[in-house]
Amino acid sequence: MNQPLVLGIESSCDETGVGIVRGTTLLANTVSSSMDEHVRFGGVIPEIASRAHLDALVPALREALETAGVTLDEIDALAVTSGPGLAGALMVGVCGAKALSVATGKPLYAINHLVAHVGVGLLDGGVYGGRLPEDLGALLVSGGHTEILRVRNIASDVELLGSTIDDAAGEAYDKVARLLGLGYPGGPAIDGLAREGDPKAFRFPRGLTQPKYMGTAEVPGPHRYDWSFSGLKTAVARCVEQHEAAGKPVPVADIAASFQEAVVDVVTAKAVLACREQGIRNLLLGGGVAANSRLRELTASRCAEAGISLAVPSFSLCTDNGAMVAALAARVIMDGGAPSDLAFAPDSSLPVTTVSV
Amino acid sequence: MILLAIDTSAIASAALLRWHDGDAEAALLAQFATEDTKSHAEVLAPGIRALLDEQGLTGAHVDRIVVGVGPGPFTGLRSGIATARALAFAWDVPLGGLMSLDAVAWDVVASGSSVQTIRGPRSTPASGETDARPLAAPSSDFLVATDARRREVYWGRYTASGALLDGPHVAYPDALPPLPAYGAGAGIYGEKLAAAGAVVVPGFERAQPTAASLGLAAVERLARGQALLDTAPRYLRESDAQVPGPRKKAL
Ligand SMILES: [Zn+2]
Fold it and tell me: Does the pTM of the predicted model rise above 0.80?
């Protein structure tokens, strides 16, 4: 099908997104977030996110169709994130999308959330002008995930090169912001305060960088391109406690800056290493933490040094949204991919090798 | 007119019914129900599509949707409501909710009247005749209880004619009033209910809310001129989230 009109639904975490694309043209990107409801808990509460999805879904559908100026009847195909993500949250979008498919008789495509983050690169006027480059990689950093992917063919051939083995980077920001009394979400709070602090004041650990984990390019260790942030969080907690125990004021700005530097340093170092060794010449940065000023800065400078071209989509397309789901599904359809059987189950740990179910 | 009923408060089920405005009687055209309580998101949409196909109906034929609003385990309950809301949006038809426990209450009252016709009011099951449904019609208020997990039940108290008097609630089974109790929640906790003076009614120890009975109950309610509920899920429990306390300072 040439330029299919696709409606995509996203509900894998705390954002209910409905996006509509025509082929590679973005027509609507409606997002409703339950972030405010998670503030007092200091992190996303899956059950609260799921309840919010249920109430946000139909209003978001209505608004997206209105923004795009199309009716449900005119839509050629439906798409939905089927994983990875929070199981209960995924369930709401999946049930809604399946119901729309039954109601309209339109085909439904179950789409991988992580690959969909790269799908925004397909949009006209976006970072790649509707056509993904060769030798493409993607660095995804958010509250829910931290991954480096190699994208040979976005519709059919995606490989996970590395990922966090414990917390996501954004989750580490939230936990440290809470330790420092900075509130939720932690990313913007720490990013702001870090500008007033000294990033070299404390040398916090860079997880999984010891030789036994890294190995060499020829003989890679078990976690050469992987990250770990739990030890970093513990080190920050210990640092705060030591100041308190000594009766000294906690140097919050210096800790924020040093923590941020540790995260950004190890994230970019390993991502660029993976690109160099795997022949990736083009890197797309996605996920909500792509808004972090220091991450953008250091990724840009290290990519430039390594001769890698870096692309960062606009913020509304970096965070979770339905347009990315629709954009990827449109590509799958244009490549002749088959729709999903309606009996598919949401899969909270769907591997990136499964682009569409 | 055609009514589509959906309930996922325990098992997943859907049903198509034909009824006439103002008439309390409805004809059940087709239904499906799962055995298990965990595959709602997989089976519900294909199940509804199969019901429509089987009856040669399309969305254009559906005049109204009713969905069970619980109480029920969160994720399962939401699958039915999300499905019903999206269908109602796409078809642009009225959508209403009904307490899922009402479906079991409807079965209780209906089974009583049919047994009475067949066997007379005082018949009791012959010994060894385990498959025969005994006289179940309550002569007093009765309870409907479903499994709320975590050793609790969702329950409601109904009049002998099936009107909700009290509930829905979520509670430990030994806190229920001493009345005849119907439903899978009663079956699981028979001993605890007995200790509280409630009696688990034979033949209903495994009864779950079904969309077919929910639809019949909805038609009866509409015929009496009563409105259906909204579709807000009756979770009866908060999310388990804890507001973190202040961090302990190292001193
Ligand atoms: Zn994401």
Answer: yes
